[in-house]
Amino acid sequence: MKKKKVPILREIITKSFFVIIIILAIYTFGQIITFWIFTDEYEKDLLKDRYREIVSLSNNISTEISEEGFRDHLKTLNSGEVDEEIRIYSKDKVYYQSKSDIWEDINYRYIDNDIKIETKILDFDIYMIISADIKISDSNYIIQVVRENDIFKEFTENSLPIFIITLVLGLILSGVGAIYVSKSFVDRLKKLTKTMNEIKENGIDKRAEISEANDEIDKVNIVFNSMMDEVQDAFEEQSRFVSDASHELKTPLTALQGHLSMLKRWGKNDKVRLEKSLDICLNEVERLKKIVNDMLILSKAENENIDLNELDKINPKDIINELIYEYRILNDKVKYIVNIEDNIKIKVKADDLKQLLIIFIDNSIKYNNKESIEIKITLLKEEEQIKLEVKDNGIGIPKDEINNVMKRFYKVDKSRVNNNSFGIGLSIANRIVNKYKAKIKIDSELNRYTTISVYFNL
């Protein structure tokens, strides 16, 4: 059977009230037990004093007092206001026993040179019993003195009603307090719920209110606001991505449509125009292919998770040298300066490391207006990390643009027409670096250099 859900307000009040009842009950019984322990020790001391008094009197029998006088004195001990009963006995006979029904519930005890004090509850009353040796007229006996714990009895009789009234009053006040605190807590949760509904209906600009208390609810609101900021950033970035991707795709498609329409109307008989238009169309198709390929690589980098514990270390030196060899074949005018520290290994997939280097080197060549292009690649250990650095002598990046260059489709110079640049490369590099919990840093100065550093953990 499915359990019926209880409203959170009622659940909080019920649990709070239950906890308060337990606390009050523990406190009340703790006070009673503490007082009982105190009175218990006090009654034990009285019993010991009574025992010593009787022993002292028994030692004076035949010198200062007769046995009959000793018995008369014992009778006077339980004839006053103090409820005390005395019994003296041996294995053979009972020497003295006060007249009381209590002896029916108290057993004879036979001990040897010892004093035994015990507690016994009879008819809901607490009694203290001392059993010890006593010598009377050269004969050995056992004496038992029974004393009711009058102090604790009077305390419970007089104070228990006050305790009960205080407990009930405390429960009532605690219940009211629990309702107030619980309602205040739930009201703040309702405010957060209201904010969520407003976001759902009106958009993601609304945020939860943060009070000056900075309590746990405020911390939840802060986390919620932070989450909504990230969601809003993601929406805005996604919107920019769609807009920029549409723009990048629209340019080659427009060119293709224009040239194909022109060829259909009059370019089929003009061989020169036909050849030129077909070359342009092929270039635009290649451009579309590269855009789509870069977007697929970016999507893969965003969705792929890497378990560094299951990844083997690779030797990056061979990959770097092989890639530079391929670039030199394509363009032998670029100068490469390579500085790789010996015996360095990195936990990274070979394809990912190669993709990073291709992006960095392509950008170094693409954004360079010098007659002599120079690219310096450095790989070395630095403290507890391995640093991969690619530095060029290109056009550089403005300081206020460095934080933006890793955004998708972002271009520093938006007026530049470069069919091979889509602003995706560094975004792909950033996603690859994040997969390995590494860090990427860019340093640049206009018309002088750009340095991209990647820090891998050892």
TrEMBL record:
Coiled-coil region: none
Residues covered by the Histidine kinase domain: 244-458
Catalytic activity: ATP + protein L-histidine = ADP + protein N-phospho-L-histidine
EC number: 2.7.13.3
Domain (HAMP): residue spans on this chain: 183-236
Cell compartments where the protein resides: Membrane
Membrane topology: Multi-pass membrane protein
Keyword Transmembrane helix assigned: yes
Name by which UniProt lists this protein: histidine kinase
Species, as recorded: Clostridium gallinarum
